[in-house]
Q: What sequence folds into this?
């Protein structure tokens, strides 16, 4: 297991009305959607589009495990910063530490750890992370 040297990636997100419940508070499952967006944009910044990973490399990433700590609620129209930092990369899996903070105060609202498995898109069986992606994740 090699330790990546990348800095934390941050993706801005605005809370829309559709993200909230009747009280204007973000529905708990939507924090996971925000984290997913940050991981997707992180890969995009590295030059890897998820649709191309499917078509060219024949792989997908599936969430294997999630741990989430909800601290404070986000509300309608809040500006958030969602971070993604790789903890480790193994042969066919990787793990992210993620957090969601208010953009203006950096107050922590939610944090989580997400473990992903690299799968063959056609069989949904574990497969090694392609070397170009693995190398990019360790830069």
A:
């Amino acid at each position: 297991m090699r330790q990546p040297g990348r800095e934390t990636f941050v993706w801005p997100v605005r809370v829309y009305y559709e993200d909230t419940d009747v009280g204007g508070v973000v529905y708990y499952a939507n924090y996971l959607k925000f984290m997913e967006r940050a991981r997707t944009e992180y890969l995009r910044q590295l030059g890897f589009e998820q649709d191309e990973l499917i078509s060219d490399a024949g792989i997908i990433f599936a969430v294997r495990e999630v741990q989430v700590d909800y601290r404070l609620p986000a509300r309608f129209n809040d500006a958030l910063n969602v971070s993604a930092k790789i903890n480790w990369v193994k042969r066919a899996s990787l793990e992210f530490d993620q957090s969601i903070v208010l953009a203006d105060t950096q107050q922590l609202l939610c944090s989580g750890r997400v473990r992903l498995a690299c799968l063959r898109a056609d069989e949904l069986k574990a497969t090694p992370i392609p070397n170009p992606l693995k190398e990019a994740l360790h830069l």
Q: What stands out?
A: The domain at 9-137 is CATH 3.10.129.10 (Thiol Ester Dehydrase; Chain A).
